Amino acid sequence: MNGYDLFEITFEPLGQRGSAPTGQSLLETARQSSVGLISLCGGLGKCGRCRIQISKGKASTVTPVERNLLSREELDLEYRLACQTYPLSDLIVQVPLESLSASQRVQIEGIRMEVQPEPLVQTYEVRLSPPSLSDLRSDDTRLLEQLKQRHQVDCVCIANEVLPELSTKLRSLDWHISAAVRGSELISIKSWPSRQLGLAVDLGTTKVAGYLVDLETGRSLKANGVMNPQIAHGEDVITRIDLARRNGADARLMRKMAVEAINELIADLVSQVDASPEDISEAVVVGNTAMHHLFLGLPVDQLARAPHVPGVGHAVELKAREAGLSASPGGYVHLPPNIAGFVGSDHVAMIQGTGVFKAGGTALALDIGTNTEICLVHEGKMTCVSCASGPAFEGAHIACGMRAADGAIEHMRFVEQSLQYFTIGNQEPVGICGSGILDAIAQLYLAGIVDKGGRILKDHPNVRSRGRVREFVIVEAGECCRESDIILTQKDVREVQLAKAAIRTGIKMLLEKNGLSEYDIDQVIVAGAFGSYLDLESAMVIGMFPRLPLDRFRQVGNAAGTGAKMSLISRTKRAEAQRIAHLIRYIELAGEPNFKEIFLEATA
Predict the structure, then answer these.
(1) In 3D, which of 210, 192, 163, 198 has the Cα closest to residue 277?
(2) What is the per-residue pLDDT across 61-107, written as a single tens digit (0 to 9) for each?
């Protein structure tokens, strides 16, 4: 140990260096050193994805968790889990490619909806006469009276955030300004003419999508997406909620991460249109109840315990600066209402964005993810459920799983007893993403290599056994960017069985509650990033979706983002979102007496 009681940790082949005090894990050191190690479980020693190799130096002894998740061969080669390993000297650590988080394909586009702009923020040109000995009115009175006289605007107050700069700006702009008014409050003053921009955000568990909109015309200007940095603290909402419950510092950090991700999007989007963050006078943020509560810094303990009740269900409005967002000093951020359980405003936005609530006949709308929300619309009535489908469709808990990044196998087909694969970006394969896993299991089932119960059978040259567990070799090590073969294991098949069973159970119970069968479904709307890229035929083959004609399905992209934009552009649509949330009936699946029976049936 050196004189500062710190060990130097070098992460190769990245060349990144960091310092670790006694008692700090290599995972935490990697985070502080901007090394993007995958940690789907938030460092709890459950996922086994933060695998590293000790090249030089001394580390803590191997833990029982590592003996369970790593093979004997890996341990002999000094492979460790970063979350379980603590330095006892300076270390040189090798980071395998598959342990690094890659830049993921983020679905930001959704349905195009024509919405008549009805912005909550109105902009007015104001010319003022400067004060004189014969006109001693204060600056604020002068401005408010001119708004009333010239534009018949009953503006009764000026935002506290604007007051410190009011007098200076009026004079520097020579008394000719652009005044932005929201309701009866003046929220910004700028030079005339000026633009009023809005920001819509879909704050997802895995990804954050942002949309920059011209509030006056309703036109979408730019869109972009980033990974939710909270992933470093857990792949799913349950892990993050548990962390937030145990440690207030972690809760504050996750809030900070969400805010910084949105601010990163703001900086990128405004730079593309030669604007400033201060041009954003209104924002709308949608997300599930966990993301909503973490973003607002609300308690999440009640979400973790049955019956999983949100602390706040109604719509929330606060100043954007108060939320930590880079925006106009007096601008607002609006969070539409949540529904119940983990079903939040993103589901309301998805329903509004697809227009499914106005559908005739019977329609299903699904937003597939770590937590899948499903809404059944029948005879004008809406019923919804939330399914804990888990992160398998994000590539988590899968032996060679990864997110949808370059090099991920996204589709597979069996051709003459050979499994052909297609990767994102036409790169050498690194692993398998969710749509690829779905295809692999469907294709192996159709080829007779996986039976109806999900067992991998022996009679194929690519099938091998590791102990008692069978696995199918998709790509050999020499043909991919990994140190080992890309495989599909029996455990992987079970993970997907559980995920698809959760979704199928949700569908079946919604139908039962409404006295319907699968054959009564007129249309199925599939939303979200995974839903945009999955093969519908594969989803039906493995039993995740009912066997229906393909022309009854619609894959619509990020419909939640579309709904968020609608609430941003139009006060009428914002009120409509309130009505949708109020009209939806929520069913807690775990509270249904036949839930376990239906779920077990759906695993086959």
Answers:
(1) 198
(2) 999 999 999 988 889 999 999 999 999 999 999 888 778 765 545 45
Q: To the nearest whole percent, how much of the chain has pLDDT over 70?
A: 96
Residues of the chain with CATH 3.30.420.480: 197-335
Residues 303 and 309 sit within 8 Å (Cβ to Cβ):
yes
Residues 6+ apart with CB under 8 A from 358: none
In CATH, what is the architecture of 121-191? Roll (3.10)
What is the fold, at CATH topology level, of the domain defined by 6-99? Ubiquitin-like (UB roll) (3.10.20)
**What is the C-alpha to C-alpha distance for residues 414 and 417, in angstroms, rounded to an integer?**
6
Closest CA relative to residue 366, chosen from 264, 191, 507:
507
Predicted pLDDT at 520 = 96
CATH topology of domain 197-335: Nucleotidyltransferase; domain 5 (3.30.420)
In this prediction, residue 306 carries a pLDDT of 84
Strands (DSSP E) contained in 31-156 are: 51-56, 79-81, 91-94, 121-127
3: confidence class by pLDDT, cuts 50, 70, 90: very low
User: Measured at the alpha carbon of residue 233, what is the angle toward residues 311 and 38, in degrees to the nearest 5?
Assistant: 145
Say which range, 49-58, 99-108, 443-452, has the weakest mean pLDDT.
99-108
* Dihedral of alpha carbons 25, 31, 37, 39, sign: positive
The CATH superfamily assigned to 353-390+497-603 is ATPase, nucleotide binding domain (3.30.420.40)
φ and ψ at residue 208, rounded to 5 degrees = -125, 120
Whole-number Cα distances in Å, 7 to 15, 21, 86, 201, 337: 16, 6, 10, 41, 48
User: Do the Cβ atoms of 110 and 556 come closer than 8 Å?
Assistant: yes
DSSP annotation of 100 reads B
Per-residue pLDDT tens digits for 563-574: 999 999 999 999
Peptide bond into 336 cis (omega under 30): no
In the predicted model, what is the mean pLDDT of the chain?
91
Write the DSSP symbol of residue 169.
Answer: H
Across the range 342-358, mean pLDDT stands at: 95
Strand order in the sheet with 91-94: 16-21, 6-12, 91-94, 51-56, 79-81
Say which amino acid occupies 340: A
